[in-house]
Amino acid sequence: MIVIGIDPSSQDKGHGVAVYDNGVLIELHMMKTIDIVLSLFEKYGKDAVYSIENVCANNFVYGRNENSKDSKDVHGEKKRILGMCQQSQIELTRWLERFGINYVLHDPTRKNWHKNKKLFESATGWNRQSNDDTRSAAYFGYLEVKNPIFITK
Fold it and tell me: What span, in angstroms and rounded, lies between the C-alpha atoms of 53 and 72?
């Protein structure tokens, strides 16, 4: 089974993407939405499951943000970036739905590997190049690999 983990991003470099084949991490990429939908769909077909961080479940109003000493401008910028990531996720899922591509959403978690390269490498066996976004994508793909929510035929 092919599982494609995605960390939605609004940045020009695109989303973090990780591809698992029968539980083995085989690819890490930074890809724009259209490239995810067209090139990965062409390569892996409709049987792949896209496992996506649900940034829309995220809310800026956390205790850690409310209590931070950041200025109003910094708070505003963080909210703006989160909103852009949420819109990026919405657009990605609209494309996936349009093409009948299977996906599941996973709530954000602090256990994510984006800042923990050593844990990421230990869990996946991947020792090649990665960045925060691709490690995050690998984490959300890993969740679906280890505990499938979406069952394919």
Answer: 27
Rounded CA separation 49/4 (Å):
6
Are 85 and 10 within 8 A, CB to CB?
A: yes
Q: 28 with 40: CB under 8 angstroms?
A: no
The one-letter code for the residue type at 149 is I
Cβ proximity of 142 and 123 under 8 Å:
yes
> How many angstroms separate the CA atoms of 87 and 85, rounded?
5
Write out pLDDT tens, residues 99-111.
Answer: 888 899 998 887 8
Could you give all domains of the chain from N- to C-terminal order, each with its CATH number? 2-146 (3.30.420.140)
Instruction: Let me know: does 131 contact 16? Beta carbons within 8 Å.
Output: yes
The whole-model pTM stands at 0.85
| CA nearest neighbour of 41 among 113, 103, 132 | 103
